[in-house]
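Researcher: Batch entry, complex prediction.
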Amino acid sequence: MENRVAGDDRLHVMRNAQGYHRAIAAVAVAEGEVLAPFGARETRDVPNYLTVQTGPDAHILLAPEHLQYINHSCDPNVFFDTARMEIRALHPIAPGDEITFFYPSTEWSMDRAFACSCASRDCLGQVAGADQLDARSLARHRFNGHILDELAERIATVAA
Ligand SMILES: [Zn+2]
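Model: Structure tokens for the complex:
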């Protein structure tokens, strides 16, 4: 049993009896369409379990706050575009679908690694930031500019 506890007309945040939150689409969203714009309530220079990384030393607390309940999946249906500050659909989304994103698409080194149980065929198992991904996972997903910059820097360091 889940109850709606937050959200807006496009996204509902549901909470179950165990206190687990999920963000559920309230509308259909086409591939490439913006589900929601986002902003920063606060910017910090170190990550915590609620922040989204937007630059080398920038970690934001999301505005509106209910967007923080968008969970990780290794087979995500949205992308947090930190240059445009927009959440975009990677695939067509139907009302009732859980909204998920791939945390390493924004996070280089996460504050807390966790065991993923998303049950996707390509589940990472342990999610710990883009710096821990293998080449196969890097090739499968879309990443923000600050993550691509870190990867390019690492390749340059290895090559030097
Ligand atoms: Zn997973």
